[in-house]
Design goal:
It is built from 11 helices and 9 strands. It is of the alpha/beta class. The chain has helices at about 5-35, 75-85, 85-105, 120-125, 130-140, 160-170, 190-195, 205-210, 215-230, 240-250, 265-275, and strands spanning about 40-50, 55-65, 70, 115-120, 145-150, 175-180, 200, 235, 255. The chain binds ligand C2E and magnesium ion (MG) (3 copies). One magnesium ion (MG) binds near residues 59, 118 and 150.
Length: about 280
Amino acid sequence: RAKMSGRATFSFYTAEMQAQMARTLRVENALRRALERDEMQLHYQPQCQAADGRIVGVEALLRWQHPELGWIGPAEFVPLAETNGQIAVIGRWVLDTALRQLRAWQLAGLPPLRMAVNLSAVQLRQPGLAELVGELLRRHEVDPAWLELELTETMAWDDPEGSARQIARLRAMGLRIALDDFGAGYTSFSHLSLFQAGTLKIDRSLVAGIERGSHQASVVAAIVNLARTLRMHTVAEGVETPGQREALLAAGCESAQGWLYGRPMPAEAFEALIRERQAPPPG
Ligand code: C2E
Ligand code: MG
Ligand code: MG
Ligand code: MG
């Protein structure tokens, strides 16, 4: 049967691959003008104390809306931007925009927040990264302690020592490093000490299955203990249900991020949310 359908299967895949390639070309072309055409935005997702939901931080997440192609997610276009080098310009825009927003919130009297910004592996390899970050912090008059840069450990595979040096330079400026997506794919424990990150973000794939004495629950508890030993703070990603929150609290995880606490949203909506949730009691 497999043999008989071989030909049809082949042409099916060819058509699909062609459509995929056409889409990639189209997206890549559109990406070149996305910033100058003002098609990109940052959305902001709260990072909360797991126990009481108090907002202690915020992650900036890149959004792109193209007039014809509609919303395109970062999981699709960030890898393209990494391949063609545009991530340098986009990444700079992300940092600039997130720090400008953070400063505006500080001046508007919002409760203190740490701003988390995702960094691409390609940015981490840029020689002038620390200088760029320093320049933007000064320009927006933001204390480095309020900035956290999120890295994924796959970034270090090519050049662990080079990555560690770059990260040390950033840490020396007084900002925080978070290790994103921990527990997804191939986790190398040696990277934990190499990076000396202050925050460990537990991947959504582990959080998804954590309810009620599951295997994942013990894995997460072990990760939280390990993080505590290394004096790292833990944030669970993709928390969607009260059951997951309970299991995370039982595992000792301090902070949580996910739809249960708030979706990524435009700046104005985030500001309204924090004012509503964290308003001082009346009278
Ligand atoms: P990430 O940094 O791990 O971000 C978390 C992703 O999970 C986000 O997807 C977020 O919208 C989603 N998420 C949050 N809470 C929940 C939940 O409760 N349930 C589910 N199902 N999903 C949730 P998003 O925004 O599509 O971003 C995907 C990835 O793209 C990010 O993963 C990050 O690696 C990358 N990315 C996003 N913004 C940037 C950026 O400015 N620069 C770089 N280099 N990468 C970025
Ligand atoms: Mg992240
Ligand atoms: Mg993540
Ligand atoms: Mg991710």
